[in-house]
UniProtKB/TrEMBL annotation:
<dbReference type="GO" id="GO:0015562">
    <property type="term" value="F:efflux transmembrane transporter activity"/>
</dbReference>
<keyword id="KW-0472">Membrane</keyword>
<dbReference type="InterPro" id="IPR003423">
    <property type="entry name" value="OMP_efflux"/>
</dbReference>
<dbReference type="Pfam" id="PF02321">
    <property type="entry name" value="OEP"/>
</dbReference>
<protein>
    <submittedName>
        <fullName>Channel protein TolC</fullName>
    </submittedName>
</protein>
<keyword id="KW-0812">Transmembrane</keyword>
<dbReference type="GO" id="GO:0009279">
    <property type="term" value="C:cell outer membrane"/>
</dbReference>
<dbReference type="InterPro" id="IPR010130">
    <property type="entry name" value="T1SS_OMP_TolC"/>
</dbReference>
<keyword id="KW-0175">Coiled coil</keyword>
<feature type="compositionally biased region" description="Polar residues">
    <location>
        <begin position="97"/>
        <end position="109"/>
    </location>
</feature>
<feature type="region of interest" description="Disordered">
    <location>
        <begin position="94"/>
        <end position="121"/>
    </location>
</feature>
<dbReference type="GO" id="GO:1990281">
    <property type="term" value="C:efflux pump complex"/>
</dbReference>
<comment type="similarity">
    <text>Belongs to the outer membrane factor (OMF) (TC 1.B.17) family.</text>
</comment>
<feature type="coiled-coil region">
    <location>
        <begin position="370"/>
        <end position="397"/>
    </location>
</feature>
<keyword id="KW-0813">Transport</keyword>
<dbReference type="GO" id="GO:0015288">
    <property type="term" value="F:porin activity"/>
</dbReference>
<dbReference type="InterPro" id="IPR051906">
    <property type="entry name" value="TolC-like"/>
</dbReference>
Length: 477
């Protein structure tokens, strides 16, 4: 016959555990943030302004911008100046004509030849090579801007994910720690009842085993939280302290999956970058082919020479020469490079299809994850409610000897698992909403309305595009 369990002692710990669990869930998804709490928007703003990966990509874009003035230089003249100075000593001994006396004409000349000049080369016609080079450089810039936008998306998504991971793991750690406290109290009561003969040694062993398992879960939860904190520090740049609740951004998403696919396939940054890559590759074919065609240019030279022939002479010369160059045969190198460029252009066109398929899969996956998370939250809430009712019922039945200690422990564990599942589902819903926005290509500081200065990718381009000289960068380096 089952023995009755000591009454009132379950009630207090049950209330404490329930309150602690609800607080943990509220910290993840609901609740009210304190005045000094870190918010999701603040974390994303800091990641946007200071993430090393994102800043590296911005520097890469600025370097790509310099391709445009380099290509434009093909339209401009090239001016070089040269100067030289030296010494010349000439001694000659020439026999005198019609002389039988053996006399010779001796001369000694000492000169200091020197001079300087300026040469100007101006391209007039290069079979469209410069024009194609400029267009290619501009396509590379546009592609780099799209790549930067995609990097911004990835950084913001990583920051949002790490933010929610810290909240989730904090809540789960709190649940496990409170479960340990409840099971410690359960073990103490079971041992007291064993002393008075109400339960057997088996009941005590079951309580001890369940407590050890709970302690192990708490240790694992603490380790997971440390890992999430490290990832948060990596993605955001600061340590997480008093994180405010996270909420989904479903109001920023397309209403249906077909609408989301349409938005993604027409405007995702990775697809746009691939399309610009095709343009750049096709223009490279034209740039390479231009080496097979004639070029025409003009060269102007002005020189001033001193002591070039005899001491004290002074000569000034100037010339303007038109030069036509017609390639005949260069060993087959240009032909090979042209074929190579065409194959590369074909590869870039295939890459566009690959990116479209990748984006489509990402949208469908993220959308499915969001829908699943919503359904999991509803199911988990029902599971928690049922587990709470079951635990209460099992405890009441245990009081009158209808349930064993193991039944109570199992019901307690089921409630902890249900609440952990609810916490995880709530985290998944928030992360999935950010994942969908990223998959359609709209996760940005402007869309999220972050309170941070937006990086203007065109500013540096406008600053360097028309620069004619100077090695100093616009930021003063």
């Amino acid at each position: 016959m089952r023995r009755p369990v000591t009454r009132q002692k379950f009630d207090k710990k049950s209330v404490e555990f329930g309150a602690a669990a609800l607080i943990a869930v509220a910290l993840l998804f609901g609740g009210v943030a304190g005045a000094s709490a870190q918010t999701m928007d603040a974390a994303l703003s800091r990641a946007y302004s200071g993430n090393p990966t994102l800043n590296s990509q911005r520097a890469s874009l600025r370097a790509t911008n310099e391709n445009v003035p380099q290509a434009l230089s093909g339209y401009r003249p090239r001016i070089t100046a040269s100067a030289d100075i030296g010494a010349s000593i000439t001694e000659s001994d020439i026999p005198a004509k019609n002389s039988t006396s053996g006399f010779h004409n001796n001369s000694l000349s000492r000169l200091g030849p020197r001079g300087g000049g300026v040469q100007v080369d101006q391209n007039i016609f290069d079979s469209g090579k410069t024009r194609s080079s400029v267009s290619q450089a501009e396509s590379l810039v546009l592609g780099a801007r799209a790549t930067l936008r995609n990097t911004e998306q990835n950084v913001l998504l990583d920051a949002a994910t790490s933010y929610m991971n810290v909240l989730r793991d904090t809540a789960i750690l709190n649940l496990n720690r409170n479960n340990v406290e409840v099971l410690e109290e359960q073990l103490r009561q079971t041992r007291d009842r064993f002393q008075v003969g109400e339960v057997t040694r088996t009941d005590v062993a079951q309580a001890e085993a369940r407590l050890s398992a709970s302690q192990s879960q708490a240790i694992l939860a603490e380790s997971n939280l440390k890992t999430s904190i490290a990832r948060f520090r990596q993605n955001v740049g600061i340590e997480p302290k008093q994180l405010a609740p996270g909420r989904p951004i479903e109001n920023l998403l397309p209403k249906t999956l077909p609408a989301a696919l349409n938005v993604a396939l027409t405007g995702h940054p990775s697809i746009i970058a691939s399309l610009h890559g095709v343009d750049a590759a096709e223009l490279l074919v034209k740039v390479t082919e231009a080496d097979l065609y004639p070029t025409f240019g003009v060269r102007g030279v002005v020189q001033q020479r001193y002591d070039s022939t005899f001491f004290g002479d002074n000569r000034t010369s100037a010339s303007v020469v038109g030069t036509l160059t017609v390639p005949i045969y260069e060993g087959g190198q240009v032909y090979s490079r042209t074929r190579q460029a065409k194959e590369t252009a074909g590869q870039r066109r295939i890459d566009v299809d690959t990116q479209r398929d990748t984006v489509r899969a990402a949208v469908v996956s993220a959308w499915g994850g969001l829908e699943a998370a919503k359904a999991q939250i509803i199911a988990a809430q029902a599971q928690v409610q049922a587990a709470e009712t079951a635990l209460s019922g099992v405890r009441e039945e245990a009081k009158v000897g209808q349930r064993t200690t193991l039944d109570v422990l199992n019901a307690q564990q089921e409630l902890v698992s249900a609440r952990s599942t609810l916490v995880t589902a709530q985290r998944d819903r928030v992360v999935a909403s950010y994942s969908v926005l990223s998959a359609v290509g709209r996760l940005s500081s402007e869309t999220l309305k972050l309170k941070t200065e937006t990086y203007d990718a065109r500013k540096h381009y406008d600053q360097v595009k028309g620069l004619l000289w100077g090695t100093q960068t616009p930021d003063g380096r």
